């Protein structure tokens, strides 16, 4: 499938990626996935063969199954946030044609070039990898405009409170007397307390799915048999 020269070229590029971006890249071809889905097969091969960089095992495995003529990328660790679903879909679009033309080396060369470019850019703005959940999550932040508005509102509220308290104290110190004898009135009525029935309604709220969504800058994720979380968008056939 690949010539020795092509394999040597891939190894040089992958080593460069490891040294520069602390990210592992695995290209794996097979004729059978032993009855497993491509995602599960790729994840297990990656997890049980010691691939990945650092505690979060950052990296990517690109599986090409010649038996079913399908391909599937699987990401791990911080690479999940960098190679999100949208970016993996773009890589898929670019390599589909050379794969269908049986130009496998060119397809993998394009993949490595695009992966390097995305690693250089880093995670999509507003997203980061959460090692505790194993997912790419949206970062919540407050803009400078919102901070300024909050400060202005707080200042106005404080000023109003100050003037209200000041006015109250001024009223207490004055000699004003309310004519309560002339202005008062007492009405006595017979009141009965009636106990009404209490009604409690319940509503079942379903739990969200375990996989995160892949829209926008996010990544759809799944868990391999090792218990490690992986990203797995951008698969296809050729």
TrEMBL record:
A Pfam family assignment: TPM_phosphatase
Keyword Transmembrane: yes
Residues that span the membrane, as ranges: 141-163
Keyword match Nucleus: no
Origin: domain of life: Bacteria
Domain TPM: 1-115
Protein name, per record: TPM domain-containing protein
Organism classification: Bacteria, Bacillati, Bacillota, Bacilli, Lactobacillales
């Amino acid at each position: 499938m690949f010539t020795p020269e092509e394999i040597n070229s891939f190894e040089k590029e992958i080593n460069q990626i490891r040294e520069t971006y602390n990210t592992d890249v695995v290209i794996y071809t097979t004729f059978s996935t032993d009855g497993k889905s491509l995602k599960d097969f790729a994840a297990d091969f990656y997890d049980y063969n010691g691939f990945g960089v650092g505690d979060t095992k950052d990296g990517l495995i690109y599986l090409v199954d010649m038996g079913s003529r399908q391909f599937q990328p699987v990401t791990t660790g911080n690479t999940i946030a960098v190679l999100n679903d949208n970016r993996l879909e773009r890589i898929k679009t670019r390599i589909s044609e050379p794969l269908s033309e049986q130009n496998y080396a060119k397809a993998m060369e394009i993949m490595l070039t695009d992966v390097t470019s995305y690693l250089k850019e880093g995670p999509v703005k507003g997203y980061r990898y959460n090692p505790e959940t194993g997912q790419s999550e949206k970062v919540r932040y407050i803009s400078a405009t919102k901070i300024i508005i909050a400060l202005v509102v707080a200042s106005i509220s404080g000023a109003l409170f100050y003037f209200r308290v000041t006015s109250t104290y001024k009223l207490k110190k004055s000699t004003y007397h309310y004519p309560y004898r002339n202005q008062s009135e007492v009405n006595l009525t017979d009141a009965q307390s009636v106990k009404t029935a209490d009604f409690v309604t319940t509503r079942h709220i379903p739990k969200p799915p375990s996989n995160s969504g892949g829209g926008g800058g996010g990544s759809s994720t799944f868990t391999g048999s090792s218990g490690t979380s992986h990203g797995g968008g951008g698969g296809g056939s050729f």
